[in-house]
Structure formats: structure tokens, C-alpha cells
Inverse folding.
């Protein structure tokens, strides 16, 4: 018989995990979902965010999430520079499909090797008052290490959603994801808008990386574990929709958590991806796809 | 004639002086002739990135120090020694290709394994096909199925490795069974070759200890949040919790145990990871109460000739390289691994693989981790394991763990430094 305590805690743990998954996927939803750029180097940018938090908190004793927020503009600029390089090297020549993919693969490996050369392969971690303690609300345990990244992640995504739906540039990003040519006819530069959007997608890695190093110690290759999962969540969410992506991330988190609790942790990834396949069979455009 | 005597005496004096000077200055280096000729190459893969890299890089540094030492002593068979290695990225799928390249393209003279079971087992079919002598490094019972006569294991687990690695833990369980009323046990196992082998041995020991298994599941090593696993274990209310885990998952499990407040009497079996300095310093007091295995610590009874000098040099070289700064877990064993191979080559006076294997099979080796003798399946003739408990750790600095501080040997009697603090749930973290 299923214990109610265990079920509720499994759902809560799934939501917290889903919040983190949403943070690591939001950048891919922008770059892959909206801009059609298969940025498989996203985990490398996330790890860069983790190492930025590590190195800054190592020398200056400040909160890692504050570091993640302060580093957002730096990552934004990095993202814009990477897009420029990608644009001139591939997109401009119409070679973005295979060569562009190879470019991001290369970027992933170069970033990983650079991190190995700079930091070595030892596990790195940060210290914060919320790593370790838990809140106990009745029968529910809320590890702060998972709760705080989940909350900050949802706030970040809500702000991004507001930006996309209310600001001129945000709307232009949504427009470029639908029809770049139409946007050009309205005297807006799709390249410039895509550059800003790609900058935002990489900027989210600053916070996502910080969450990652809060949740678990990191080493340079750990990002690879997330490649499949983040693309799966993006597709399940409907590619371009933030609410859809958040719903997908929470669903995957909850499915993984319930499976791990009641049927065995080894089944968790298989059940989560099985769930993805079934959903796509029933609804090929994803949860919030049009 | 009279005038010649002083000159003869002077001649003798000069000769004596030259002999004394030769003895003082030249003789000590007479045996350390500069090696010359084509280098003898030793090939291996090593996890230099990925989940096992935290220990793999430490092992590589240990091997490099051995090569330096050996070349200073005159190399092997008068030829210099050269290490040829590739990063296997902790990916077992890459290992067969690496060893094929080492043997067929690089034409290495000798081969040894990477660190760890998961990246050693896939090398064995290639090694067997090429009929090479093969030293395994911290590989758990990989020769059980192959029974390859030229395989030798640098892991002190004796002829029954699967059971031996958890033997000490279950000795502690048996010793406290009545006192603590231990009846049930939960097993959480990383879904990998080494940890599944360890869990097989643990199940045999559980049977002997007369415990009832109430949870027995594997988990993928890429798990992000371990709290559902700990909650599921807690729901079975086990008296004893046993994990067979690898470094990244050990960290996740310990953090989740701490956050949820795992309530059990004895924990945690055979966790790999808490032996590494970076993981010790990341967890600090969260480690308190955890019982696991270790192979070597700088305890007085384990300070074999040369080991502290080796560690001194290791620690100087490791500083600033992002490599385990203390190096207690793997580095001395990696050094000893090549000491055995080197002594065997010198003893056999040949690079003939059969002669080297025969020599290893029939001799005892003096190494920095003590005397080594091989028996059935190439495993150590006798097990020499330790069970440790982390106790009274207050901080998270490297100094909190230097000289084995905070890691108390509780089994076997021979190396015992203290008693276990039990039950686990009574310990403040």
C-alpha cells in the first residue's frame, strides 16, 4: 500500500527537482525552441556558471546566488559574442544545420577541456547557509538546498516571461521565433534580435550553474548528464513556451521522484523518457505547443 | 732506497684517499647508472575526466612519481621507463579502443589497468586476446569470469573480493547485533559493475549476519536528487543501511541523509568517495558516524618503508594541480602497482609476458603499501582491508583530515584505533 506521507514527499521532491530542471532548460527553450539553434554547448555554459560561482565565492565570501545574479550581464555578453561568431561562420552562409551543430559540439569539448586545465578534475563546491538544513512542514521535508534554487528559478522564468510578453524586444524575440522574414519586413533586424535572445539564453546559465553547484559538487564533465534531459524537457514543453517548459520540467521531476520512491530509482530515467514518448505520441507539439 | 720509502707511503696514502673518495662520492651512484636505449613503455588508460577522475588523477601522479624514481635508479633492464596513457573519460565504452591502440599502434611493452572496476573490466578481453600480463588497479573481482592467469590485482581484498570489501562492516554489525537489536537492512546500490559486485558480496555477508533485507534497489549514477531514495529507505525503517556507491552519488546520498535525518542504527557499508580529500572537505561534519571501508591511512601500523616519503613528494607535486591534495586513497597503491611490475621485469630479466607473470605469481614484493603476494585469480593472497568510521569532524578544511584525522579505524583489531560510535542517528552532524 502506498504511504500518503511518502507520496506527498515524493511529489514535493519532484517539484523542487523540476524547478531546477526548468532553470537549466530555459536557455535551451530560447535558443533551440525559439531561435532554432541547437546549442548543445548549453551544459558547458551552465558549468561555466557553476565555476564562476565557485571561484568568486572562494575569494569573496558572498552568497552564491547573488554571484549568479551579478554574473548575468557577463554571461549575456558571452552569449552575444558566441552568437556573432556562429552567425558569421554558419548562419550567414546557410550552413547552420550540420556545421552549426559541430560548432556547438566543439564548443562543448573546448569548454570542458579548458575547465579541466584551469580547475583540474577534483570536485568543487560552494558553501551557503542553506546547504544542509531542511524545513519540516508537518509531514513534508523541504531541503533548502533544493527549495531555494527552485524558487529563484521560478522567479527568473516568471520575469523572463514578463519580459518576453511585455517589452518590445521580448515581443520581437517571439516574432523572430515565428517568422524572421516577416520581422525583417517590419524594419527590425532578425540578426540583432536573435543575438539579444541568444545572449539571454546564455545569461540564464549563470543562475542555472549556480543552482547546480548548490545542489551537487561539480567537476568539468558533469554537464553531459543533463544534455538529454534538457532537450527532452524543451520538446515536451512545446519548444517555445515557458509555461509549457515549466510544466514539463515539473512533470519530469515528479515522475522521476515517484518512480524512484515507489518502483526503484533505476527505472526513473526510463519512466520519465517513456512518459515523454507517450505525451509526444498523443500530442506531437508538446504540452503547450501550437 | 731510504729516500723512496716516504714516496711509497705517499703513494699508498694517495691511493687510500682516492678509494675513500670513490666510496663516498661515486659508489652511491654506481647502481643508478643513466638508463639508455629505447624506453620501455607502460601503457594504460586512466579516468582523467568524468566521475572517477577525482581519484584517477591522483593515481596518475603516483605512477608518474614511480617513473621518475625508476629512471633515477637506472630505469628497467638499463632502459628508461616511459608512461603512455590516455584519458578514458570514466567511460567504459572507450576502454577497449584505448588498449587496442596502446598494444597495436603504440606497441607498448607493458600494460596496466586504469583506476577502478568499471574501466578495468572492459580492457580484459583485449588484454587476453593479446596475451599480455596485466596489473589491475582497484578493480573489484574482474577476473572472476575470465580466470586469466596473467592478471594480477592491486586491491587488498584477498581471494573472495566481493565479500571481503564489506566484511569489516558486517563484523561491526554482528558485534552490535544483540546490543542494538539489529534485524533489518536496506541496500542502495549504484548501477555499475564494481558496486553491483560489492552488493553481491554484501548479500552473502547479510545472510551470514542473519539480517532481513527490507529494501534492495539499484539507482543510476546520474541521479540529481537522492532524497526519494533516502525516503524510500527510511519508510522501511531499517536497522542497518548499506550503500555500494561511487564518488558523485556518495555525496548526493550523504547530503540527502543529512537533510531528511536518516534514522538508522548503523550506516553506510562500502561508500567510495568519502576517502577522497575533496569529498571529505565538501561534506565535513556530515560524514560523522558514517562507516565505510578504506585501504590505507597514515596510521603508525601502516607506515610501511617509503610510504611517507612518497606521500611527502606527492603532496608537494599535487599542490595547485587540482589533484587530491593528500593522496591517501589511491596514490600509494598506484605507485606500488608499478613497483610490482618493475620488480617483476627486473626479476624476470625480460619483457617476456609469460616470464613476468610467472615471476609475479611466485614472489613476494616489497612496496610502499607493504608486502604484496598474489594468489588465486590474481587477487592478493590475503585480504588487508580496514573499516573506518568518521568521528568528531568539526570543519571542512584539508587540515581537518590530515594524517588520517577524523577517520578512525574500527576494524580489524590489528589496525584498530577506536570503537564505533553507535547508533548512527544519535550522532550530531
Amino acid at each position: 500500500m502506498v504511504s500518503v506521507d511518502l507520496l506527498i514527499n515524493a511529489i514535493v521532491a519532484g517539484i523542487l527537482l523540476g524547478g531546477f530542471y526548468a532553470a537549466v532548460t530555459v536557455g535551451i527553450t530560447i535558443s533551440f525552441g525559439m531561435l532554432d539553434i541547437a546549442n548543445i554547448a548549453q551544459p558547458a555554459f551552465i558549468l561555466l556558471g557553476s565555476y564562476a560561482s565557485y571561484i568568486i565565492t572562494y575569494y569573496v565570501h558572498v552568497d552564491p546566488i547573488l554571484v549568479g545574479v551579478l554574473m548575468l550581464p557577463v554571461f549575456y555578453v558571452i552569449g552575444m559574442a558566441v552568437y556573432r561568431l556562429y552567425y558569421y561562420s554558419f548562419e550567414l552562409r546557410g550552413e547552420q544545420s550540420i556545421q552549426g551543430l559541430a560548432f556547438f559540439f566543439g564548443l562543448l569539448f573546448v569548454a570542458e577541456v579548458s575547465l579541466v586545465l584551469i580547475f583540474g578534475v577534483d570536485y568543487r563546491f560552494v558553501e551557503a547557509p542553506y546547504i544542509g538544513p531542511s524545513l519540516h512542514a508537518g509531514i513534508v521535508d523541504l531541503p533548502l538546498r533544493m527549495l531555494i534554487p527552485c524558487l529563484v528559478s521560478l522567479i527568473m522564468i516568471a520575469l523572463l516571461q514578463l519580459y518576453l510578453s511585455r517589452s518590445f524586444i521580448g515581443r520581437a524575440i517571439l516574432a523572430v521565433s515565428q517568422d524572421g522574414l516577416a520581422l525583417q519586413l517590419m524594419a527590425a533586424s532578425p540578426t540583432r534580435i536573435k543575438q539579444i535572445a541568444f545572449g539571454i539564453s546564455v545569461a540564464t546559465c549563470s543562475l542555472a550553474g549556480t543552482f547546480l553547484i548548490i545542489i551537487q559538487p561539480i567537476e568539468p564533465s558533469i554537464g553531459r548528464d543533463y544534455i538529454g534531459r534538457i532537450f527532452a524537457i524543451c520538446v515536451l514543453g512545446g519548444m517555445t513556451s515557458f509555461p509549457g517548459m515549466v510544466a514539463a520540467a515539473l512533470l519530469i521531476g515528479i515522475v522521476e521522484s515517484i518512480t524512484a520512491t515507489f518502483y526503484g530509482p533505476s527505472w526513473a530515467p526510463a519512466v520519465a523518457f517513456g512518459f515523454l514518448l507517450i505525451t509526444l505520441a498523443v500530442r506531437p507539439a508538446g504540452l503547450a505547443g501550437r | 732506497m731510504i729516500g723512496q720509502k716516504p714516496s711509497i707511503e705517499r703513494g699508498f696514502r694517495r691511493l687510500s684517499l682516492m678509494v675513500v673518495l670513490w666510496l663516498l662520492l661515486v659508489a652511491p651512484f654506481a647502481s643508478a647508472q643513466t638508463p639508455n636505449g629505447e624506453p620501455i613503455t607502460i601503457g594504460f588508460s586512466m579516468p582523467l575526466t568524468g566521475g572517477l577522475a577525482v581519484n584517477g588523477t591522483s593515481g596518475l601522479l603516483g605512477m608518474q612519481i614511480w617513473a621518475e624514481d625508476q629512471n633515477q635508479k637506472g630505469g628497467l633492464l638499463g632502459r628508461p621507463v616511459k608512461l603512455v596513457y590516455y584519458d578514458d573519460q570514466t567511460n567504459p565504452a572507450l576502454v577497449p579502443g584505448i588498449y587496442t591502440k596502446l598494444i597495436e599502434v603504440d606497441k607498448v611493452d607493458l600494460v596496466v589497468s586504469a583506476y577502478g572496476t568499471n574501466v578495468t573490466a572492459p580492457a580484459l578481453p583485449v588484454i587476453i586476446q593479446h596475451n599480455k600480463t596485466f596489473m589491475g588497479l582497484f578493480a573489484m573481482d574482474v577476473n572472476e569470469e575470465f580466470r586469466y592467469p596473467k592478471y594480477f590485482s592491486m586491491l587488498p581484498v584477498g581471494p573472495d573480493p566481493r565479500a571481503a570489501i564489506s566484511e569489516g562492516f558486517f563484523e561491526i554489525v554482528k558485534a552490535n547485533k544483540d546490543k542494538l537489536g539489529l534485524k533489518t537492512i536496506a541496500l542502495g546500490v549504484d548501477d555499475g559493475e564494481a558496486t553491483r559486485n560489492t552488493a553481491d558480496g554484501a548479500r552473502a555477508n547479510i545472510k551470514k549476519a542473519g539480517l532481513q533485507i527490507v529494501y534492495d534497489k539499484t539507482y543510476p549514477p546520474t541521479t540529481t536528487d537522492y532524497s526519494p531514495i533516502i525516503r524510500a529507505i527510511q519508510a522501511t525503517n531499517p536497522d542497518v543501511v548499506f550503500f555500494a556507491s561511487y564518488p558523485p552519488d556518495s555525496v548526493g546520498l550523504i547530503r540527502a541523509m543529512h537533510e531528511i535525518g536518516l534514522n538508522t542504527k548503523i550506516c553506510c557499508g562500502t561508500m567510495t568517495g568519502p576517502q577522497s580529500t575533496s569529498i571529505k572537505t565538501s561534506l565535513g561534519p556530515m560524514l560523522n558516524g558514517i562507516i565505510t571501508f578504506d585501504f590505507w591511512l597514515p596510521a603508525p601500523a601502516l607506515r610501511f618503508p617509503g610510504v611517507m616519503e612518497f606521500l611527502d613528494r606527492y603532496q608537494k607535486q599535487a599542490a595547485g594541480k587540482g589533484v587530491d591534495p593528500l593522496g591517501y586513497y589511491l596514490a600509494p597503491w598506484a605507485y606500488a602497482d608499478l613497483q610490482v611490475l618493475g620488480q617483476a621485469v627486473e626479476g624476470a630479466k625480460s619483457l617476456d609476458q609469460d616470464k613476468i607473470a610467472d615471476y609475479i605469481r611466485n614472489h613476494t614484493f616489497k612496496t610502499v603499501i607493504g608486502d604484496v603476494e598474489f594468489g588465486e585469480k590474481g587477487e592478493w593472497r590475503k585480504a588487508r582491508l580496514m573499516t573506518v568510521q568518521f568521528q568528531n569532524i568539526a570543519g571542512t578544511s584539508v587540515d581537518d583530515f590530515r594524517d588520517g584525522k577524523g577517520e578512525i579505524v574500527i576494524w580489524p583489531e590489528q589496525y584498530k584505533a577506536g570503537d564505533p560510535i553507535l547508533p548512527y542517528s544519535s550522532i550530531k552532524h
Remarks:
- The CA atoms of residues 144 and 377 of chain B lie 7 Å apart.
- Chain B touches chain A at residues 48-51, 53-54, 56-57, 89-90, 191, 217-220, 222-225, 227-229, 231-232, 235, 247-248, 251-252, 255-256, 258-261, 276, 278-279, 282, 286, 321-324, 396 (CB under 8 Å).
- The first helix of chain B runs from residue 5 to 30.
- The longest strand of chain B covers residues 212-219.
